[in-house]
Structures are given as C-alpha cells and as structure tokens.
Amino acid sequence: TLLLSQIGPLHYAQQRNHLQRDVTMKGLYFQQSSTDEEITFVFQERENLPVTEDNFVKLQVKACALSQINTKLLAEMKMKKDLFPVGREIAGIVLDVGSKVSFFQPDDEVVGILPLDSEDPGLCEVIRVHEHYLVHKPEKVTWTEAAGSIRDGVRAYTALHYLSHLSPGKSVLIMDGASAFGTIAIQLAHHRGAKVISTACSLEDKQCLERFRPPIARVIDVSNGKVHVAESCLEETGGLGVDIVLDAGVRLYSKDDEPAVKLQLLPHKHDIITLLGVGGHWVTTEEDLQLDPPDSHCLFLKGATLAFLNDEVWNLSNVQQGKYL
Q1: Pfam families of this UniProt entry (predicted)?
Q2: Beta carbons within 10 angstroms of residue 171's beta carbon
C-alpha cells in the first residue's frame, strides 16, 4: 500500500478548506500501447470539481493500495480509453456530500473500492465517488490497514458468506493460506467457528501458518511436490472430505501438458473433487476451469456446488454490469 498523506489535527481544518476550493491537482493514470504489451504510467492534471451529483461524495484520500491492473478484464469489458485511473482501494476523510447522500457526512472516515469504470484515480489528493462504494472505517483501523485489506477482505467474505454459506463446525480448505487473501479467509473462518485446513507453498509460509491462533487444524506443505493434498484432507476429516474449498487456482491438465505459468504446486482439479465432501462447496478463482462429464457426474453424486469468485462483479457500475452479464 501507499500512504498519500497524514495531516495532524492542528492543520486539518486549514488543509480541508484548501481542498474544498477549486484547484488543479495531479492524478496517476496508466496508458496502454497499441499492441497492449507495454504500459506507461503518467501524471495527469485534473480539476478539483465541486460535488454536483446527488449521490456522490468528495473524499480526501489518506491511503491508497496499489493492486494489480487487470488489463485482460478491461479488454473483455471493451473499456477503451486513452488513460485508465490507477489505484482503486482507498481510505480517506469525507470533505463534502451530494444532496441525496444518506450514509455519510463531512469529516466521516471511510474506506472503499472504486468501480472498474471510475474516472478518478485513487492516487490523487481528492476524488469523487458514489456513496455505495464506501463504508465507514473502524476507528481503530489505520488508513494503510484499511486500504490494504479492503479488497481481499471483500473477496474472502464473499467466498465464505455468500458463495459457500459457512457455518460453525464446517471444515474449510484454504489453499495458499499465507497469501493476503488466505490469511483473511483463515481469520474469518475461525471467527465463524470453522475447522481450517490450509496449504503452504514454502517453509516460510508453513512457519507463518503454524503461528496462527487459534491454530490451524492441519498445515499441508506442498512445496516439495510430494504431499498429496486430497489424501491429507481425507485423513484429517476421517474420510468424509471437507465442506468448503477455496482454491488459489488449479491445474487443468497433467504436469507434462500444463503451461509453465501453472505452478506445479497447484492441485489438479480432480484432487479438489476427490477431497470435497457430500454437499460441499467449491469456490474457485480459476476463470478458465473446464470440467469433463465424469467430473460433473462426480460433483452431482456428491450433491456439491461450484462457484466462481470474481470480485470485480461487485465493483462495476450498474451500466457496466449490464454489459458484463
């Protein structure tokens, strides 16, 4: 994450008055080449326009997280622009609100994710954003923590609450638990009273996961490629299989046929189906997942469900959602 500014309380009023005036400031954008192979970052001057839209909020950005730019999705959405805003996970202080804003008022501390089609970059001193993309920031959470965790927090909550209906006593396999998404998912699962199993891709990740409190039921070290994830999960659950699987990608083919970008540490799709229990939920991030008829039949016999975790669906405006769906 990148911390843009921290203003002491003695200077806040003066700074706020300055930001309320119409001034010219710079925002960070990226520009793709005609071949879409090269990305150039540029600063673009933009006017600090007053809030005119009814449901929009003017926000002083205090912290902005720099996450990966999904150029493939932008192309699929046919979002052709000369310049694309950089930085979408933001935390800051409300400066002004539109006439129909009902959730916020000036001086509120908020955090949110800018929509994919936002005109304003998060890497700017002042931005405008629709109130529906913001929530109140908890008082004890710092600016950088809020901006840095909001995206993976929403992803983990969506996967566990909406897509797999997590409840106390369920068993959950969280792949690559030491990742940003994995660590938040583990904490949420523990909070709901679930039994957590996780995989580690290195010795350092394994040591990190073993320090979790409450402890993880089993940490499966897949770094050497010799441990069978399905066997370990079935052993841990007494042969019943796990209730919920959150993957971090899967292999679709044999090791010899898999592209180089597919790390051998990823489990095969057949392993996931094997370790899934009756009535289980498989939440995948593998956008190109292909299931053969025997795979589908096995899921049918287990009464299992398959859900795709695409966090960007929730970050699109209503107009863009219509194009996407």
Answers
A1: ADH_N
A2: 21
Domains of the chain: 24-141 (3.90.180.10), 152-308 (3.40.50.720)
List, in sequence order, the alpha helices (H) in the chain: 9-20, 71-76, 143-157, 180-191, 203-210, 229-236, 269-275, 293-302, 318-324
The angle that helices 180-191 and 143-157 make with each other, rounded to 10 degrees, is: 70
Classify residue 21 as exposed, middle or buried by CB count within 10 Å of its CB (0-12, 13-18, 19+). exposed
Average pLDDT value over all residues in the chain: 81
Distances (CA, A) of 312 to 3, 70, 165, 283, 321: 24, 10, 20, 15, 10
- Cα–Cα distance between 147 and 168 in angstroms, integer? 29
Closest to 275 in 3D by CA, of 160, 166, 170, 173: 173
Q: Is the peptide bond before 214 cis (omega within 30 degrees of 0)?
A: yes
Per-residue pLDDT reduced to its tens digit, 27-50: 777 776 655 566 777 777 766 665
